[in-house]
Write a structure and sequence with these properties.
68 strands, elongated, 19% helix
């Protein structure tokens, strides 16, 4: 934000004197707010937002950002009225209507021109817009419109023009060029008792000045008093020939008026001059069109090409001793009802009419102390009821507003009285090149010359309780000086970072609470005589780690200090147990103090003087510390950033049921997923203290902790995932007064592929896929199971085949074995049978021979016994039947089958069949059967016939297949 701040203070060219202190003036150029040349009217709503009726339309400012809202016809906006609901009624050229929050909480314009009766719709500028009750009045030169209940009524002047309209204290007045001053009562414009006394004059404003008392101010700088219905001119006021188009009440005792040639003039209600604010005091232009006083008592000024803010009620004022050139103010001193300021060009003095209260409000002028110019006046000190000036040209004493040299020559920095007992007899002077000595001799001080010792620049000198002197040099370290008994020479010892200091550079020395302390880049240190080392100060541990270069204690025990470009105060508090300090800063003064030449003169709690780049700064600390304005915070704009930016929130909440401004449930927006980045702008409408405000925020749903306090008025978030978020915002001032929290909730919708419906589809698809996958797995499993079963069956089958094969092999082997055994048995049986058969034949033959012998009587007894024995052997042939049984058991009942199936077979043929089954040859069979081979063949033939075998069929095969 571009802000031009001017502090060109000086004396005024009017008969009355200005106050010594001039408030800070901030000038906002039209290039900043993008408006036109002039600002015609200024108002403030309940939230603190400022509104300006400008040549280019409605301009708003919320403490951080400016915005321009043109009228539909792009014409000049002349007047503004804001109702209790913060609806902004405006009047321009040929246009009337109002601004209020619309879509996305953006300020939108609504025209009410269509409500005007057709014959009155063409008109010129609306110069005044005011309200009485629920009615809104718009004044053009030739008519007044009254808007009430969505209906517009038109009032015409009796003759000529309507010259003015204004409201104050529930009374609405209008100036009829012919009839004089009228008041709107009982739905009519009625003349005041002597309202015609204002004929020929044009009122500029109308405001309360007390109970039932009003002031009517005219554009020609005349004032009239209105009490009841009686008007009287206020005489005996030095008014001058001024054009005064605008007035504003500051308080119950003061008001401000604008002029076309002399800026703004502030007066009390007794019409005494208080102060003038013009170009010399900092305005961009003396042609002031409009003035307005906000709720903090700041004065807003509309001048050509600029809008200015006069921080009138601030406890901080600026004193400029030189009316021609800005000079640097090095030190201040109040002595015998005079205020002295030493500067980059000598010393200046201003007489004080009183030493009570806030001295910046005293009306006075500075003048140069004679003979003090042409050089820097570094330091002012009061000693022995005289003012000493440490000057670039030596030591001076100021008497009767004239600088009298005491020790001219070498430039000097500071003074160190060697005794605190009045009168002081010796003063050690720190000069550019060493130390000088001043001694008091009856009628004043005179120089004893330079002390012999180490030559250096001694700007900081402090005496300890033993009489030793400590000096600091910002680039070398800390000196301990020991002055000789005759005070004409001194010894030095230099301490550096080797002696406990955090650094050799930027070390200083001061006396706080009667203790020698050494501010450094890393806090405050003290010297420990026991170890001859520097150690961190315990009682000033509040400064640990803080770079400090200047310290000054006031009458309340507070410590004023400088750190970097900041001026701060360590507020003192004590109880029965301990002393504590609490640090706070003055952000509004950052950059105004003098780096390395800091000076604070705490005359009392209402009058603290600080050396500045432009004279001196005055702080009424008592008033400053008592400020209890609760800061407020405004959320100004929210942009959602995607391929194209979208304005989500325009800065204007609606009132809720608790009469507060907050987001309504129906205003919670849901944004497309294409918006993942957001830009937040915020501010605090604390216009007189813009640098005192810090902000903290937290995006709920994304951040767990609040951010660190920062002065930045913007915050960006990128790549936010879908979800619901609440942006929380709060502000605080430098006195730790914290605002209420402002919240804004919004939702980022998931992309279509992450929406609820998409998720439902995904769920169904997932279920389907799961089902299909499960089905596929089931089928796959079944297939695998089937294959497994088939494989298992195959394996079982193969196994079974293997088992069967093995079993068959075993059976085959067993069968082969059995067959072999059977064959063997059959062979054995056949052999036995053949043997038996042979035996039987033999025995038969033997029997026949024996029978023959039996016929021989001689051998009768022996032969009988032999015959009997042979008979037994023959009987043994009956074992054939047993053979047949055993044969059938061994050969699957072959003989029984043959007997059953072929009953025609004889026993001998069955024997032949048995022999053939046993694969006996015909020769073997003939031997077993005791027949010839031919006989066997005959038997074979007979058997084939009985068995019904065809020619070519093998008898052996047939028998084998049974």
């Amino acid at each position: 934000m571009y802000i031009t701040i001017l502090l060109a203070f000086g004396s005024v060219h009017v008969s009355a004197q200005n106050t010594l202190g001039i408030p800070l003036i901030i000038n906002y150029n039209k290039s900043l707010y993008k408006g036109g040349l002039r600002t015609w009217d200024i108002k403030q709503d309940s939230r603190g937002i400022m509104y300006f009726a400008n040549d280019e339309g409605l301009v708003t400012y919320n403490g951080g950002f400016w915005k321009l809202y043109p009228l539909p016809n792009k014409t000049i906006l002349r007047s503004i009225y804001i109702d209790k609901n913060d609806r902004v009624y405006v009047g321009g050229q040929d246009e009337i209507g109002y601004f209020e929050p619309g879509a996305n909480n953006v300020l939108r314009y609504t025209s009410v021109k269509s409500m005007i009766p057709q014959q009155y719709r063409n008109f010129s500028d609306i110069w005044n817009t005011v309200a009485l009750g629920e009615s809104i009045f718009f004044r053009a030169s030739d008519r007044i419109f009254m808007l009430v209940n969505n209906r517009i009524e038109v009032f015409l002047p009796t003759k000529g023009e309507w010259l003015f309209m204004g409201e104050a204290g529930g009374r609405l007045l209008a100036m009829d060029q012919h009839a004089g001053l009228l008041e709107y009562k009982r739905n009519k414009w009625l003349p005041l008792v002597n309202g015609s006394s204002l004929k020929g004059r044009v009122p500029a404003d109308f405001f309360e000045s007390g109970e039932d008392k009003f002031i009517i101010a005219t554009i020609d700088n005349n004032l009239f008093s209105l009490q009841n219905d009686s008007i009287s001119h206020i005489d005996n006021i030095p008014r001058g020939d001024l054009y005064t188009p605008s007035f504003a009440r500051i308080s119950d005792s003061e008001y401000v008026k604008s002029t076309s040639t002399q800026g703004c003039i502030i007066q009390d209600f007794q019409h005494h001059f208080i102060q003038r604010i013009s170009v010399k005091e900092g305005l961009k232009n003396n042609n002031v069109t409009s003035v307005f006083v906000d709720r903090e008592k700041n004065i807003w000024v509309g001048v050509d090409n600029s809008i200015s803010l006069v921080n009138y009620n601030s406890p901080i004022k600026f004193l400029s001793p030189d009316t021609v050139n800005n000079v640097i103010g090095y030190s201040s001193l109040i002595f015998k009802d005079n205020l002295y300021i030493s500067s980059s060009n000598g010393a200046f003095v201003a007489p004080l009419s009183s030493l009570k209260g806030d001295l910046s409000l005293v009306k006075s002028r500075f003048s140069l102390v004679k003979n003090s110019d042409d050089g820097e006046g570094w330091q002012l000190e009061e000693m022995n009821q005289e003012i000493f000036l440490a000057h670039n040209k030596g030591v001076f004493v100021i008497r009767n507003n004239q600088a009298v040299p005491v020790a001219a020559g070498a430039g000097c920095w500071t003074f160190l009285p060697t005794s605190s007992v009045y009168p002081v007899t010796d003063i050690v002077v720190g000069t550019y090149w060493g130390l000088d000595l001043l001694q008091y001799a009856g009628n004043g001080f005179h120089s004893r010359g330079a002390l012999k010792g180490r030559s250096d620049s001694y700007r900081f000198l402090v005496q300890d309780e033993t009489g030793g002197i400590w000096a600091s040099h910002p680039y070398r370290g800390i000196y301990q000086l020991q002055v000789s008994t005759d005070s004409m020479k001194f010894n030095t010892r230099l301490f550096t970072n080797a002696d406990g200091l955090p650094s050799t550079f930027n070390n200083y020395v001061f006396k706080i609470r009667n203790r020698i302390v050494f501010p450094t880049e890393s806090g405050v240190y003290e010297f420990d005589p026991a170890t001859a080392k520097f150690i961190p100060s315990k009682f000033l541990s509040v400064f640990d780690g803080l770079p400090v270069r200047y310290m000054k204690e006031d009458d309340k025990g507070n410590i004023w200090f400088c750190s970097g470009k900041k001026l701060g105060i360590a507020r003192f508090s004590a109880n029965d147990r301990q002393v504590t300090y609490t640090i706070s800063y003055f952000p509004e003064l950052e950059g105004y103090t003098l780096s390395n030449f800091d000076n604070v003169y705490p005359y009392n709690q209402q009058n603290i003087f600080i050396g500045s780049e432009n004279g001196s700064i005055h702080i009424n600390y008592e008033k400053y510390a008592e400020q209890k304005l609760q800061p407020t915070v405004l959320l100004n704009e929210i942009k959602a950033i995607g391929k194209e930016d979208s304005l989500v929130f325009g800065g204007f909440f609606l009132r809720d049921k608790k009469d507060a401004f907050s987001q309504q449930p129906q205003e919670v927006v849901s944004l497309s997923s294409v918006f993942s980045s957001f830009h937040f702008e915020f501010s605090s409408p604390i216009y007189g203290r813009p640098n005192n405000i810090e902000y903290s925020y937290r995006l709920e749903g994304y951040e767990r902790e609040w951010s660190a306090w920062t002065s930045k008025k913007e915050k960006d978030y990128t790549n936010l995932p879908a979800g619901k978020y609440t942006f929380n915002l709060k502000a605080r001032d430098n006195l730790n007064h914290e605002s209420a929290t402002v919240q804004y909730t919004f939702t980022i919708m998931p992309p279509w592929y992450m929406s609820v419906w998409a998720k439902a589809v995904y769920f169904l698809v997932l279920c389907l896929l799961f089902y299909l996958l499960n089905e596929w797995h089931r089928r796959k499993l079944l297939q695998q199971q089937k294959k497994f079963d088939e494989k298992q069956k195959q394996l079982e089958y193969i196994h079974q085949l293997e088992l069967e094969k093995n079993e068959k092999e075993i059976i085959k082997l067993q069968n082969e074995k059995l067959a072999s055994e059977v064959a063997l048995k059959n062979k054995e049986l056949a052999s036995t049978s053949m043997q038996l058969e042979g035996n039987a034949n033999t025995f038969h033959k033997l029997r026949e021979e024996v029978i023959k012998l039996d016929n021989n009587p001689n051998n009768k007894s022996d032969i009988k016994s032999i015959i009997s024995l042979l008979k037994e052997v023959e009987d043994n042939n009956a074992n054939w039947d047993k053979f047949a049984v055993h044969f059938d058991e061994a050969n699957d009942n072959l003989l029984k089958k043959l007997k059953k199936d072929y009953p025609k077979l004889s026993q001998s043929e069955l024997k032949i069949c048995a022999y053939l089954y046993l694969n006996f040859s015909s020769k073997q069979i003939s031997q077993l059967s005791n027949i010839t081979v031919r006989g066997v063949e005959i038997h074979r033939y007979r058997i084939r016939k009985k068995l019904g075998l065809q020619t070519g069929e093998s008898l052996n095969s047939f028998l084998g297949n049974l």
